[in-house]
Structure formats: C-alpha cells, structure tokens
Amino acid sequence: MTVFPTSGTNEARHIASKATVYYNSACPVCNAGICAMQERTASDTGIEWIDVHRNPEALDALGLRLEDVRERLHVVDAEGRMRVGADAVAEALQRVPQGRIFSVLLRLWGVRSLAHLAYNAFARQLYRWNRSKNHW
Length: 136
Fold this sequence. Notes:
Helix content is 41%, strand content 18%.
C-alpha cells in the first residue's frame, strides 16, 4: 500500500495498485454490492470490474469455472494473487474510500476467521437461492 500526501493538506490518500474484481451480475445481491462499490470509487482507483455473467470467457486465463465466481467473489491483485470470498471483499474494499476501514477490520486476526465463516455460509445459501430462482 502506497500513501502519498494530498496537495495542500496533511491528510494522506491511498493510491491502490491495480486489482481485477470478478463478480456475477446475475445475482441481484452481488450486483447491488458491486454497484455500490463502483459508485463510491473514482475512475483512478485501479479496479477493473469483470462481470462473469456477461463475459464468462474472462475466466479461461485464470483456470476458474463460472460456477466458482457465481458462488464467491474473486479478486486478483497487482501481484497476481487470487483472493476469494471474504479476502476478496477485503481486497476490493481497500480500494473504496469509505470501505478502507472495513478492509482493515476484515483482516484482523480473529475477525478474519469469523468473516470467512460468515461469508462462506451466506455465499452458499445465496448461491442456492439464485439457482432456485433461475437467475442463471
């Protein structure tokens, strides 16, 4: 994480390295969360948003199945590390100005384990619900 002072202030601002977020817009809950993050980010935050529902071929280079991303959020950071689930949420939130504090909290020891448990349980149920509603 690189921090540079903003011009004319003593505050620091985060310049995030590039990350690619792979999400599924066919899930209304997932899409709402991604849209909220997109609205809060400037175009220079270094996030590339890939909707796998509309661009499933984008997963070929990563060796992922479409069902993997339908069930859990995936983020590839600037170093090429794949983040999945709660870790992917934390990575994406790091690049959202109002989300940085949540990113830090999600990465705390203890909280991270609980976040994984909660995310995985919710993701599994959400995936089943979306399948039952024929969203894909």
